[in-house]
Amino acid sequence: MDDAPFGLVAHPEKPGAADLVRQIQAEFQRHNRELVLEEVTASLTGSRDGVPAGEIGRFCGMILSLGGDGSLLRTVHRIWPHIVPIFGLNHGSLGFLTGISSRDHAEAIESLVNHQFVVTERVLLEVCIMEEENVVREVIGLNDAVVSRGGLSRLIQMDVKIDGNDLTNYNADGLIVATPTGSTAYALAAGGPIVMPESEVFLLTPICPHVLTNRTLIFNDTSIIELDPCPSQEESFLTVDGMEEIRLGQGNWLRIRRAEKKLPLVGMPHVPFFEVLRRKLKWSGSNV
User: Fold this and answer.
1) Which residues does 151 contact at the CB level (< 8 Å), separation at least 6?
2) Residue 93's pLDDT band (boundaries 50, 70, 90)?
3) Residue 229 burial by CB count (10 A; 0-12/13-18/19+): exposed, middle or buried?
4) What is the pTM (predicted TM-score) of this model?
């Protein structure tokens, strides 16, 4: 990674994105380091020399994602399976994955080129849509996989197994399988706990369950979870990392397990996870 170029993937609809991309380019030039732009990002500057997102991981030792947490999630999905370390520059409000403001891009770039950063290995979900024992489609996720009735506000019934053992039949608005990274996302809003990003666990959180004893289950990330929507109900949907809503056909079930690859997430050493957590959740303490 020492001599490899850096890559840049920006959210094109963020206000001021084009000017910021040019500033980042100039900063890398000042440090005599090569910066490769993803093709949509390059078009912001009027250039046609960008690289498709699906290929940029082949050429770069590290990718900068410019936007918010959603932008970083999209970057992970777009560069898969060519996963390389990703650094998030937040162009908006503070995020859990993008904890450095774009206003501080010059300082951040100087730290990156001088190898003054930390890397946390974030586990990824491998989500397989199954038909009998055949894989119909495979999707990876950094945050979570959610099964629900989609836009319909109706209950979903789902049989759940962990490592081949029956757990229960959930009757809820939906079910969230989250990584530690995703514990601060939808799972948190659904009442789940916050776990440290490098914890070797998954979280299973029901959304508005009809059985009050159905609470978040934390289990080892070496486990395999099977979700099987009951065949008697109408259609159900899978959403991974809040991206595409995938319709599950009759007879489809889900197999979710830890992906073979992890995401190396790059951060600054002076911005620990608990500092981001405190600022993002506005934990200012008590005046009492």
Assistant:
1) none
2) confident
3) buried
4) 0.93
Q: Give how many domains the chain has, as a whole number.
A: 2
Shared domain for 212 and 135, answered yes or no, is: yes
Q: Which two tokens stand for residue 190?
A: 């659904």
CA 186: distance to chain centroid?
A: 11
- Comparing C-alpha atoms, which of 85, 105, 87 is closest to residue 95? 87
Q: Counting every residue, how long is the chain?
A: 288
Tally of helices (H runs) and strands (E runs) in the chain: 7, 17
The residue written with tokens 């009757």 in the block is 171
Same domain, residue pair 106 and 195? no
Q: Find where tokens 């001021």 sit.
A: 16
Other Cβ atoms closer than 10 A to 267: 21
Residues 31 and 100: their CA atoms lie apart, in Å, by: 20
Which residues participate in catalysis according to the annotation? Answer: 69
Give, for 205, the enclosing helix (H) or strand (E): strand 201-207
In this prediction, residues 203-222 reach a mean pLDDT of 94
- The answer to whether residue 149 scores a pLDDT higher than 90 is no
